[in-house]
Amino acid sequence: MSWSAALVVLRTFLGIAYFTNGLAKLIGFSNFTIGPWTQYLINRPGAKGVLTYDVHNPHYGIPLARDFAHNFVLPNWDVIGWVVTAGELGVGIALLLGIFGRLGAFAGFLMALMLFIWDLGAGGWTYDYLYDVVLLGILMLTPNLPGLDRLMPWSRAYRGRRTVQAPATTSTG
Fold first, then answer.
1. Nearest Cα to Cα of residue 96 among 133, 149, 143
2. Of 16, 136, 143, 151, which has the most beta carbons under 10 Å away?
3. Spatial contact of 60 and 54, defined as CB atoms under 8 Å apart
4. pLDDT of residue 167
5. d(Cα 92, Cα 14) in Å, to the nearest integer?
6. Computed from CA positions of residues 113, 114, 117, 122, in that sequence, does the dihedral angle turn out positive or negative?
């Protein structure tokens, strides 16, 4: 398996994780079962609960970020919860389809980094967020992975496939 194929598998896995968590926030479910396998997702109330727990513990997180979450994010959760939902859905779709893949990885990187900073020291989720930060950072810096970006007019690969006709020349005599 080539590096690009391995990175596409990684991008797809992270896309599924972000998309399903965004979907859980949109629809409101928090777990589903397929045979013996149960998956737990974080819906909007659950996300608010995790953030509330993190920011109300004075030993967790970086104080400035914790204060921002406590004084701005939580009081405005009715709006910000929907922004997070849209962000996770957008990141998930971008990563799954490979359209705006690097931008999607960057947005996911920022979301995971904020969660890591808010949760720093809590122990429960801190390492999970750090994994996302590192893996999305790698995807963010990796150009030209296969995906729908290659089919878009702004893509170098797309421009390289176009045939350009030479301008007609006329002779003047």
1. 149
2. 136
3. yes
4. 59
5. 7
6. negative
Is 37 strand, coil or helix?
strand
Assigned token pair, 80 = 């910000």
Is 80 exceeded by the pLDDT of residue 156? no
Residues 6+ apart with CB under 8 A from 105: 11, 91, 94, 95, 136, 137, 139, 140
pTM of the model: 0.79
**Amino acid letter, 102:** R
Which spans in 28-166 are helix H?
44-55, 63-68, 77-97, 101-119, 126-141, 156-161
What type of residue sits at position 166?
A: A
Record the tokens describing residue 142, joined without a space.
Answer: 């990796």
- Provide the 3-class DSSP secondary structure of residue 119: helix
Q: Of 74, 73, 63, which Cα lies nearest the Cα of 120?
A: 63
Q: Are 94 and 101 in contact (CB under 8 A)?
A: yes
Q: At 169, phi and psi to the nearest 5?
A: -105, 145
Q: Are the beta carbons of 116 and 130 closer than 8 angstroms?
A: yes
Angle at 103 between CA 54 and CA 108, to 5 degrees: 20
